[in-house]
Amino acid sequence: MVVIGAGQAGLSSAYHLRRAGFEPERDFVVLDHSPRPGGAWQFRWPSLTYGKVHGMHSLPGMELTGADPARPSSEVIAAYFASYEEMFDLRVRRPVDVRAVREGGGGRLLVETSDGTWSTRALINATGTWDRPFWPRYPGQETFRGRQLHTAIYPGPEAFRGQRVIVVGGGASGTQHLMEIAPYAAATTWVTRRPPVYNEGPFDENLGRAAVALVDERVRAGLPPQSVVSVTGLPLNDAIRQARADGVLDRLPMFDRITPSGLEWDDGRRVDADVILWATGFRPAIEHLAPLKLRGPGGGIQAEDTRVVADPRIHLVGYGPSASTIGANRAGHAAVRDIKRLLAEAPVAV
Ligand SMILES: Cc1cc2nc3c(=O)[nH]c(=O)nc-3n(C[C@H](O)[C@H](O)[C@H](O)COP(=O)(O)OP(=O)(O)OC[C@H]3O[C@@H](n4cnc5c(N)ncnc54)[C@H](O)[C@@H]3O)c2cc1C
What we know:
Layout: E1 2-4, H1 8-19, E2 29-31, H2 73-87, E3 98-105, E4 108-113, E5 116-120, E6 123-125, E7 147-150, E8 164-168, H3 172-181, E9 187-191, E10 198-199, H4 205-220, H5 228-232, E11 234-235, H6 238-245, E12 251-252, E13 257-259, E14 262-264, E15 270-272, E16 275-278, E17 303-304, E18 307-308, E19 314-316, H7 325-345
C-alpha cells in the first residue's frame, strides 16, 4: 500500500494501518515531498503561533500537550509530528515527490515518484491543499508595479511596515492577515467577492458537523469540495469585533481591474498600493491523480466517505469533508477499515 503525504491525514492513516497489523516498508510506505516532518504546518508563517490556531486536534494515540502558546505553530507541530513518526515507527520516506499515479494492470496502480515507482493495490492520498495555492487572475494584474504574494508565502506582518497593503479574500486567512498587518502598515484595504458572513453563535461541534455535512454532500455528488471553513462563516470573536470597530475589516467589493499603481472600480473608485496579498485559498493538490481521470462531469472527484466511487482502490483522506485535523483523523481510520475489507475479499500481496 502507498500513503501519499505525511501531514495529519497521512500520519493518521499510517497509524491506523499499523494498528490493523500492517508493517511499514513491508506492507506500506508513506511518501512525502516536504523536507521535514510537519506536513503543511512546517511552512506556515512565524506569527501564526500555537495559541492562535483553534481546534487543532492531536493525532490518534499520542496527545500534543504542554506546548507553549507563544511558539510558532510551525515549530510546535513539526516537533510533535517528528516524535509521532518516531513513536509509531512510521518510517516516512522524504523527500519523495509523487509525480503521477497510473493504471498498472492486474488490479494494481503504479505510483511514479522522484525515487522510483511503486506498484500497489490500495492508495491513500493525503496530499492536502498547501501545495496548490489558488491565485485568481484579473485584468491588468501583470501591470502592477508593486509586490504580489499569496498566503502560501506570507512572511508575517513586519514585512509590510509603512506600506499600503491590499488584502484580497474573505476567509480566515484574509482577516488574520489584515488584523496582523494593520498596526504596521501605512494603510490596509480589504476586498472580497462576497460580503463577509460573521457567525455570531458559538463555534461549537454542531456548527462544525453541519458544515462537514454540507461539504460531504458536495463530494458525494461529484462536485469540487468547498473548504469546511468557507461554509461556517467567520467566528465573531473579540479580536474580530475589535478589528471591525477599528475599521480594519471595512470591506470593499471586488475591483474591476488592476493598474500599475493599485486597483480601480468602474464607478471611479481607486486605491493605490505597494502590495497585493492574495488570501484566496487553496485547492486540493491532486494533479498527480490526473492520469486516472477520476474527475466526473461535476468537476470534482465523487467519493463516498473516503473511497473514490470511480476507483475503490483509492481513498482521499483530508479531502473535502475531512479537510480538518479532526476530519483527517477520522478519515484515516475509515480508509484503513475499508482497505482491510477490500483485501480480505481478495487477499493477495499489497
Ligand atoms: C493557516 C491555516 C490554519 C489552519 N488551522 C487549523 C486549525 O486550527 N484546526 C484545524 O483542524 N485545521 C486547521 N487548518 C486546516 C489544517 O491545516 C488541515 O485540515 C490539516 O492540517 C491538513 O492536513 P493534511 O494532512 O490533509 O495536509 P497537509 O498538512 O498539507 O499535508 C500534506 C502533505 O502531503 C505532501 N504532499 C503533497 N503533494 C505531494 C506529492 N505530490 N508527493 C509527495 N508528497 C506530497 C506535503 O508535503 C504535505 O506534507 C488550517 C489551515 C491553514 C491553511
